[in-house]
Amino acid sequence: MPEPKLNAELLKKDFPLLERTVRGGKQLVYLDSGATSQKPRVVLDAERDFYENHNAAAHRGAHQLAEEATEAFENARAVVAQFIGAHSREVVFTKSATESINLVAYSLSSADSPIQWSPGDEVLLTEMEHHANLIPWQEMAKRTGAILRFIPVTDEGLLDLTNINTLIGERTRILSFTHASNVLGTTNPVRLLADLAHSVGAVVVLDACQSVPHEAIDVVALGVDLMTFSGHKMLGPTGVGVLWGRFDLLESMPPFLTGGSMIEVVTLESATYSLPPKRFEAGVPNMAQAVGLAAAVKYLTSVGMDAVAQHEVDLVTKAISGLEALPGVRILGPAGPRGGAVSFLVDGIHPHDVGQVLDDDGVAVRVGHHCAWPLMRRFGVAATTRATFYLYNTEDDVRALIAGVERAQRFFGSAS
Amino acid sequence: MNLEKMYQEIILDHYKHPQQKKLAPLDSGAVEVHHVNPTCGDEVTLRARVVDGVVVSVTWDGLGCSISQASTSVMAGLAQGASLHHSLALAAQFLSLMQSKGVTTEADEVLEDGLAFAGVALYPARVKCALLGWMALKDAISREPGELNE
């Protein structure tokens, strides 16, 4: 049975920030959730409640508060794990998805890595990666001597799999790619690529920053080995990200950050390490943020992820058809099926100027290279304007976007 | 309303009809610099020639928003023909204008068309756009070593 449609007008009221006005009284229209989402009151309340009533250092101390803080943190882990169909012990809390990828790249290239690197070994990425899933591998390649290879992107904005059987081969040790492009909206064939990579024994890492917030995810069905996503893009607080990993793989991986909390036995000369996930959580953890993220997950679950996904498909479809109807506007990325990022170019008007006119109307979009500079080069552009949508966006927001782009065309056209 | 404050006619004019936006040949004595705004990808290539303490030529090419392109155009017009000392003073004055939060002073009047960018100073995210060409100029004419002109 299909889930009932969500009521974005109603949900919007749960987000205090969305009530505010900007630029001299204009009602805010927030279309930059791909960069970071706004937070519902329940998330803010959960963080505040933790600090007001349960704050203490988790996993330390014998007092009641320490027990409560530990329980709150571990409950948060369980909630996040359930959300992606995983077991708690496979969920590592990090500072951010960026840290998660750095953790993986560092751990898998350190001396005790389960992967033993030989000259000529390869890491396979794609041309559409966010810098966060590119630069950690560039650094890793410097350390290991590994060669980076890239799955190209077609003019339509899809992964070009024509030569995939030569790109994935005996030398491939790691395949790391994004589930959904933060620029093009492309949704990549995860299972297909994961199975191909596994057939040559490679480890598969998935950047799920633009998918976990927007659709129901079953990490087991995806068939990857490691997956990262960030809390702040899914209604949660900043300062918390997630690394999910197959337990046996996590168990074979050495730590990234080291220090308190992640040890078994320590002497002056050496230390042994806890089992995952604690092995990867050195220091007093980001408890309040994890608790806030769990509240966000519960909120999303109560709305229903299928309803969220369908709502975004509806908005994206309307946005694309509305923008394409304007002369001189070109959408970057596939027609569909696709994720929620809508990047576009307006003939004769630089994205920064488009964004400035939209901002003057209270419409917040992202402009620039979206931390995907190589992808911009691939399409021969310096920047794009990007609108991203979430459960609190309405059809009125889409109309405001299109009206703003028309205004930009009038403003810069008439000024000539 | 705010929009017109930022995009003054002068700015839009320079954007549509940029001055000296055609790189002069890179002969001996000229210095070329390439500056990029890493937050947005805007870029400018600038060639400058300093002879006997005078900036005799400033030409450029670039890709970017109306603010960065117009500002570079204004800069090129002001700097070409000015003394090295005055060009650096202009660059410093423009930087001060960008840090003014839109409040201009008498000292800003040396910037001529550059004064139109006062409104840009109200938008912190765009200040870097306006500064791109000026930073390239400063770099280029500071690098111009006397020995290259021998």
Describe the protein's architecture and organization.
- The complex is a heterodimer of chains A (416) and B (150).
- In chain A, the strands form five sheets. Chain A has a seven-stranded mixed β-sheet, with helices on both faces. In chain A, strands 13-14-17-16 form a four-stranded antiparallel β-sheet, with helices on one face.
- The longest helix of chain A is centred in the N-terminal third of the chain and has 20 residues, at 64-83.
- In chain A, 52% of the residues are buried.
- Chain A folds into two domains: 8-39 and 304-414, Aspartate Aminotransferase, domain 1, CATH 3.90.1150; 44-301, 3-Layer(aba) Sandwich (Aspartate Aminotransferase, domain 2).
- Chain A is an alpha/beta fold and 416 residues long.
- In chain A, strand 13 (329-332) and strand 14 form a beta hairpin.
- Chain A starts with 7 loop residues before the first helix and ends with a helix.
- Chain A has helices spanning 8-12, 41-54, 64-83, 97-107, 135-144, 164-167, 190-199, 219-222, 247-252, 287-303, 305-324, 351-360, 373-378, 395-414, and strands spanning 21-22, 26-27, 29-30, 91-94, 122-126, 147-151, 172-178, 203-207, 226-230, 241-245, 263-266, 271-273, 329-332, 341-346, 363-364, 366-368, 384-388.
- By secondary structure, chain B is of the alpha+beta class.
- In chain B, 41% of the residues lie in helices and 17% in strands.
- Chain B has one domain: Alpha-Beta Complex (Sufe protein. Chain: A).
- In chain B, helix 2 crosses helix 3, helix 3 (66-79) runs parallel beside helix 5 and helix 4 (84-98) runs antiparallel to helix 5.
- Chain B has five helices and three strands; from the N terminus they run ααβββααα.
- Chain B is globular and about 45 Å long.
- In chain B, strands 1-2-3 form a three-stranded antiparallel β-sheet.
- At the A-B interface, helix 12 of A face helix 1 and helix 2 of B.
